[in-house]
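@channel sequence for tomorrow's demo:
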Amino acid sequence: MGKRKRAREDALKILYEMDMTGMSAEEAVEGYLEVHGSFSGEADYVYSIVLGVEGKREEIDDLIAKFSQHWRLDRMSPVDRSALRIGVFELLYRDDIPPKVSINEAIELGKKYGDTESGAFINGILDAIYGYLLQKGIIVKEDTIDQDKGVSVLSS
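structure tokens (generated this afternoon):
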């Protein structure tokens, strides 16, 4: 298993803890490290996800809420909510990761840690968000990225 995949799993567990207890990112990371001793994935990437989701949580949650038809955020499973937050964070703020990879990794987190419907649920929401972000020009299709110039995923 790759280091980024393991980092996403570490981040999911920390975000889940934050969601369930109301802990800050720093408290949840500290608690995780006390129990596990270290991260199983890239530490920098775990911090990037956890601090990024915490810092942009309102924007991320608003986007999830917009596309989660008939599901309020507080009614979603905490695992699904955390996996969705990771996926949306990566779609919006990690232009070094292809969007389809971000979506697939979030789906896999849901399948591994959620219930039997989590993968399909996460897929439906992230696919809708991806289409919206493409339509708005916030992200571009992977095959249209100019490798020499790079791409900025957000204009604001």
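heads up for whoever presents: The two ends are 35 Å apart (CA to CA).
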